[in-house]
What we know:
The protein has 2 domains: 2-212 and 585-614 and 665-834, Growth Hormone, Chain: A, CATH 1.20.1250; 295-583, Rossmann fold. α4 packs antiparallel against α5. It has an 8-stranded mixed sheet, with helices on both faces. A 4-stranded antiparallel sheet has the order 1-2-3-4, sandwiched between helices. By secondary structure, the chain is of the alpha/beta class. The chain is globular. It contains 29 helices and 12 strands.
Amino acid sequence: MRLAIGLVSGAAIAYQLLLMRLFSIVQWHHFASLVISLALLGYGASGALLTLLRRPLLARFTPALAGLMVLFGLLAPLSFAAAQRLRLNPLELLWDPRQLAALGAVYLLLALPFVCAGAAVGLALARYEDAAHRIYQADLLGAAAGAVAILAALYQLAPGTCLRLVGAAGGLAAAVALVAGSGSLSPRWRRAAAALCAVAVAAPFGWPADWLTPRLSEYKAQSKALAVPGAEIVARRSSPLGTLAAVRSPRIPFRIAPGASFAFTGEIPEQIVLFADGEVAGVVDRGSANGGGDAGAYLDFLPAALPFLLAGDGARVALLGNGPGATLALALRHGAAAVEVVEVDPLLPELVVTELADFTAGLYRDPRVRLHAVDPRGFLAARRGPFDLVVLPSAESGGAPGARALEESYVHTVAAFELALARLGTGGILAAEAELAAPPVASVKLVATAVAALERSALAAPERLAAIRSWGRFLLLVKPAGLTPGDVAAIRAFCADRSFDLVYYPGMPATEANRRNLLDRPALYEATRALLGAGRDDFLRGYKLYAVPATDDRPYFFRTFRWRSLPELLRLRTRGGAALVEWSYLLLAATLAQAVLAGLLLILLPLWWLRRRPPASHRPGGTAAGRRAPGEAGAPAARQASARASLAATAGAGRVGLYFLCLGLAFLFLEIAFIQHLTLFLAHPLLAAAVVLAGFLLFAGLGSGASRRFERALERRRPGAVIPTAVAAILLAVLSSLTLAAALVARCAGWPSWLKVPLALLAIAPLAFFLGMPFPLALRRVAAARPDLVPWAWGVNGWASVLAAVLATLLAVHLGFTAVVGAACALYVVAGLAAPRAAA
């Protein structure tokens, strides 16, 4: 039976991760994670369901368990197919009430498979009360295997195909459950059940391909590009990192040149646009791969050309996640001696090198170019260099307004700038671009980040910064050695020839700002001067949008939302102000409110039911079914005793609920925090998520299996101290794991991945092992005293996992991941104080 539980748990977590991938394609990344978080309310709903139907389901345990698994397998693909057919556009939530109804319908549809999977595990916990630690171990180990399996599958298979496999896994789990419990079924039922399982395994492969193919939002850049007459997808790639598509439009060619000068009168060559999950990831030109000749003449009229002009011939250049296109072509056009190209997703340059090789005339095949499939921070941490020029990825908005507000960006933090500056050689330059917006915020935040990094490097900022802008782009230059008079003259001439505006250079008078591409006032010049002066903190506090530099503890560079500005932005929404509202941030708050309300309903309704039906040990006559024994008159004293028992049972349930709520919140808080901590060490966000998720579940599963021996060993020496001891071990393990993780980031970040992965697992293993103990330790006590509370406790723990995902993000955005870890430790202390007492 444990194998069946492991299979359905693995399929459920695979489904969760797969839905995040699918909705990242269909909508945007954080909309996907929020939808899945609320859909996981299905686990909370499963606890309510089991609380209300515990006895009939346990009476038919084997067919009920198999039926729930079959339902999961059938609903997993179908719920996604139905959900993406609803017309949901999160960008319209602020002014279209119908979108709230559509959002609720999506939540409900996606929750259904999780209700079935959660009910299957909860039913097994209720059935095998004495072996709860083994069931919980199977649940965790199966989930660990499922997380690894789905990530591996996504490298080889399309997301739609993976969805079929997840559905089939539900039917397979049901078959295993029937085999394990076949002794309780008649031959006729066994044959019927076997046929049903066979249908459940085969059915997902019979659904039409169109049902399971992700449909991009019409507001994504790729959808808009394909709306151009004659546009078509000429190449595709897919992996857990993203779904890539190369789009070409022969009839009306794409010609993209971000912020190009109006002084350019030539022709931009035909281009193919590369998309990752529906948003622009790069642009490649037809013809000369090295940007030479007339075909690449337009490149010199981009703001991005300035740092390459200053670096000169023979420069050694590092391009950190800039994507294929203009930046690489500029480096080669201006005679770079070596170009280190860093891309997290290796499929992006591979697609250009293979299927687009003829179109680009061999981009990336220039002998001066070296590719690195690694996170930019990992590249910098490997102590490569020195470089004459380091170019950071452009701070783009991500297509939709506010779409990246909750996205972590470790390459735009103060520590990343400081590390990049340290990799520059004598006279080296750091360059960073951003889109212009009104009011300016990404550009202001870049300046603030550079100033903070220079100060941490003990360098005075005013003489080391320069900035320019065109009609739509902002460019910041940082030179640790200081800008020379020759540099300043070159910058001024570059802007004059191309009609760009100067924003700042050392000693620049205010009269030189805002002279060509006119704004209402020289806002960027004023902001830069304020950030370089003594009143920087006051300026940032008073700025309408959030422009405080991002840090490794709060790596949300694209967060610009301030609650105090919300009323004004909402008043402006009918006049274009909606573009300034970070809908993903507001959606996060709305999701939290919905999760709290729905969760309270799912928790209080079963609690009311339990209060109406007191536990068997307190029922009149002592009958397990709660019916009166023959001849019982129902005296008033008995009714009063029953009422007192009901009140006591409710109070006990509150203690149990608090305990399992704290466990669910704290476990996920730590899991999310360690994913972020180890992202910097493993230098790959997907690798960090896979290692931490699988490692936490694996070692927590081992800890759950060892919890019985742990309990017996302590009970002989210190009765009643089992759970507090486990909590104390967790707190010590948190401290040791954080210390080790910080040491790994500081000393071993440049090591190869095959060495770093086992070190990362070693860092989290002791912590995860003890994290697996508190749940089964308490569940055995609940099962001994109040077996009717077991499924309810399971539901509370599931509801907590929903809250944790949302609360952890809110805490990290406002207070940092250190605060998330601190909150987790506090929650474990509360859990230790609220732990159910052992039966006398």
